[in-house]
Amino acid sequence: MSLNKVRYASVDVIRGMTVAAMLLVNDPGDWGHVWWPLEHAEWNGCTPTDLVFPLFLFIVGVSVSLAIVPRIEAGAERAPIRHAALRRAARIVGLGLLLNLMAWVAIPEAHLRIPGVLQRIGICFAAAALLAVDTRPRTRDAIGIALLVGHGVLLLAGGSLDPWINVVSRVDTTVFGHFVYITDPATGRGHDPEGLLATLPALATTLLGMRAGAWLRAGDTRWLIIAAVICAVTGWLLQPLWPFNKNLWTPSYVLWTGGWSFALLALFHVLVDLRGWKPPGRAFGVNAIAAYAGSGLMVYLLIALGVTAPLYQWAFASWMTPLFGPYAPSAAWGVVFVAIWWLVVRWMDKRGIYLKV
Predict the structure, then answer these.
(1) Tens digit of pLDDT for each residue in 269-328?
(2) Is residue 230 one of the residues assigned to a domain?
(3) Closest Cα to residue 117, out of 100, 102, 140?
(4) Count of other CB atoms within 10 angstroms of residue 54
(5) Could you count the other beta carbons within 10 Å of the beta carbon of residue 117?
(6) Strand duo 190-191 + 182-183: pairing
(7) How far apart, in whole angstroms, are the C-alpha atoms of residue 190 and residue 237?
(8) Which residues span the domain enclosing 186?
(9) Are 236 and 30 in contact (CB under 8 A)?
């Protein structure tokens, strides 16, 4: 059973541009030479790259609001919708675990990791879908606020927000042991940017998207703009308490990135839905998970075959580095990688092939 009954072209375009940005930042030619806008902040801070994942989760919330809420309001049976949402969430989480397993097999220096991007997306989608089925809009708003406040209090009560010793990292170490993104060899403490505790405020980001979806359905662009300003300003002002931090998914980070997400949705709604613009991105948007997972499998296969390094050196670094320096070929590799997958998803879109996880 499909969960996508109502579609706005603007949502597909934003989702697609977000997936393209994910591929771009995940696939430089040389990890030692990454242009700063394509890097995450080392710890505190928010680069353009740090806007990408929360924007995707925000759009997950918008999509749930557009696809599930109208069916509930129309009197559809709730149990089948719950079951379909949970099955889809389980497939997304399972695909994320499979990608982690493939990375562990393909990359000699890699270790097995349990959390991941798709795992967090699956969990947030499941929670948002169940809340869409069983709660009212005001209840969802209250839950989002409670998640933000509760997570903020927990961060402060846990002591320092520094790497390794913050409460988020301590929980990841306790729950997952060494099966996390990175482990401090000196102390044995682990941390994962998509770990367990920080998934709670990530759900708050998804619930902001659900609120945006409700306004989008109502055609109330004004409230999208108002929310963009309020969230961004509030997030900025909260930095003395909680600095912007993607790894910890701090309250200021949720609100700051939420403000940008509201603004982008309002902009693209006006340009795409109301004025009929057709920017690139839709092809990625209608095959988002397939493109993300397929590109990941492609990367791991190339690494396992020993092709990546010599191909990058021959096609990019050997002639571009003397002319433009080492950062240009690294970025060019990522751009070409995205272009290849754009051709793939565009071909699929033209033939009506949509892989639903």
Answers:
(1) 999 999 988 888 889 999 998 899 999 999 999 998 999 999 999 999 999 999 999 999
(2) yes
(3) 100
(4) 27
(5) 20
(6) antiparallel
(7) 30
(8) 9-350
(9) no
Q: Are 205 and 254 in contact (CB under 8 A)?
A: yes
Indicate the pLDDT class of residue 4, thresholds 50, 70 and 90.
Answer: very low
Is the pTM of the predicted complex or chain greater than 0.85? yes
In angstroms and rounded to an integer, the radius of gyration of the C-alpha atoms of the chain is 20
- The owner of tokens 């909260």 is 238
Cβ-contact 255, 231 below 8 angstroms: yes
- 3 neighbors 67 (Cβ within 8 angstroms): yes
297 domain-assigned:
yes
DSSP β-bridge partners for residue 154? none
Structural contact between residues 212 and 63, judged by C-beta atoms closer than 8 angstroms? no
Q: Residue 190: which H helix or E strand, with range?
A: strand 190-191
In a domain, 356, yes or no: no
In a domain, 2, yes or no: no
Rounded distance between C-alpha atoms, residue 76 and residue 10, angstroms: 26
CA dist., res. 154 & res. 283, Å (int):
40
Q: Which residues are paired to 13 by β-bridges?
A: none
The mean pLDDT value for 158-183 works out to 94
